[in-house]
């Protein structure tokens, strides 16, 4: 599967889209480059929520590997998102090109770093990594699979992620200019915990709150006014991640001053008055001369 990202991540194809090597190579040849920002944390969250799900082709019993390819320093918190994936047993390989931040690559990648972190000076040099990376990936999959099947301890978590593992009925209420309240109906099988991820839809640093599985509501505060927010509630189990709930809501605009009046004009002064804006602590008053021909 492959997702491409800048400000907003985009799934190019899911794990279940192609079944032969030739089909994958043809899809790569037809891939169109997506320029823009570098919101790596948002991209990793997208991969977890959208691409590593059974309905996108992810098999519950299969090893989960994410290969991150980036040519810049992340503009949001990539480490927080990466840690969430690693806590769920997902292994991350980090490959940097050109202006990638080596320290950030090492922070995001899984241990041991000598096998999971790579950095090259330019895109054509990526071809030099293919052989080694292929061998490392295949070896890691075999090692991890062997560890988890040793002693016939095969994971028996059901593939079904319907109502048994997934919360329903996300309700967003009590919306103000800087807060909102979330509530949902828990799944039949209570999760170990919930991850609640929220961020402005037009790009911004994703923030995350982790809740105990017995909790099914949350108050989000310190939000930006008059901003559309995307919200995801993801149930996390010991060996699986259930389908998440998603919602979108805009915070209210801040109240504005009203009824501006001008009085007491003289050759070099005037008095302004207005009805107060609720909650305002200061006012900024800007004054400039009207251009020639415009009304003063």
UniProtKB/TrEMBL annotation:
Residues 158-167 have a biased composition (Polar residues). It comes from the Eukaryota. Residues 148-167 are annotated as: Disordered. InterPro entries: ECM_Assembly_Org, FN3_dom, FN3_sf, Ig-like_fold, VWF_A, vWFA_dom_sf. Keywords: Extracellular matrix, Secreted. PROSITE patterns: FN3, VWFA. The keyword Disulfide bond does not apply. Residues 1-133 form the VWFA domain. This is COKA1 protein. The lineage of its organism: Eukaryota, Metazoa, Chordata, Craniata, Vertebrata. The gene is Col20a1.
